[in-house]
Design brief:
38% of the residues lie in helices and 27% in strands. By secondary structure, the protein is α/β, with parallel strands linked by helices. α4 links the parallel β8 (114-119) and β9.
């Protein structure tokens, strides 16, 4: 199955028959295929984000190896438009831990708000630096960032204010976003 945005509708293409099935515009569309939950974010998530943007009180900071976080934010902006409350701190090859810490602390100190810190790998340098910064700043750290997690974090940052609640929610969504798709779409009556 290949998927892509077409206009403001989400489409799914069966690559064997090149047929398109337009899915309804909805905030979160859920299909159950082979007892697995797939969450597809569509135009409604963009609208909910734009409506709630004025009340953003939570920063989202991705701390990671390489440019992974920067590219994730750029990808999420394809869905949401400009995301004002998300930043990436990239640990580049040859960069010292001290320089990475200074860059991360600069972002946290300038935000002046609660922050949700998403790291790529538990126990890696970005995670360890975040753990050090937790002693000084009000942050909640969640490891294992993926695209469903980031999308939910951006969306929840406009509607939820409690860091613990947002952390629980994004962990749940991230876990549900990891699955093996069915071999054949035609086996499902749900589409």
């Amino acid at each position: 199955i290949g998927s892509g945005l077409v206009g403001s509708d989400m489409c799914i293409r069966d690559r064997h028959k090149s047929e398109r099935f337009k899915l309804c515009k909805c905030e979160i569309m859920q299909n159950y295929i082979a007892n697995k939950q797939i969450i597809v974010y569509s135009k409604g998530v963009q609208e909910r984000y734009k409506k709630g943007r004025k009340g953003i009180g939570m920063q989202i900071i991705i701390m990671n190896h390489g440019r992974f976080g920067e590219e994730m934010i750029a990808s999420a902006e394809m869905l949401f438009g400009k995301i004002e409350n998300a930043r990436a701190v990239s640990l580049m090859s040859g960069m010292s831990i001290e320089d990475f810490l200074i860059e991360a602390e600069s972002i946290l100190s300038s935000s002046g708000e609660d922050a949700l810190v998403l790291t790529d790998l538990y126990g890696g340098t970005p995670c360890n630096v975040a753990m050090m910064l937790k002693q000084k700043y009000r942050i909640r750290i969640v490891c294992g960032v993926n695209m469903p997690m980031l999308i939910e974090a951006v969306s929840s940052s406009t509607t939820m204010s409690d860091l613990d609640d947002v952390a629980e929610r994004i962990i749940d969504v991230a876990a549900k976003g990891i699955l093996q798709p069915p071999e054949d779409v035609e086996d499902s009556d749900e589409l």
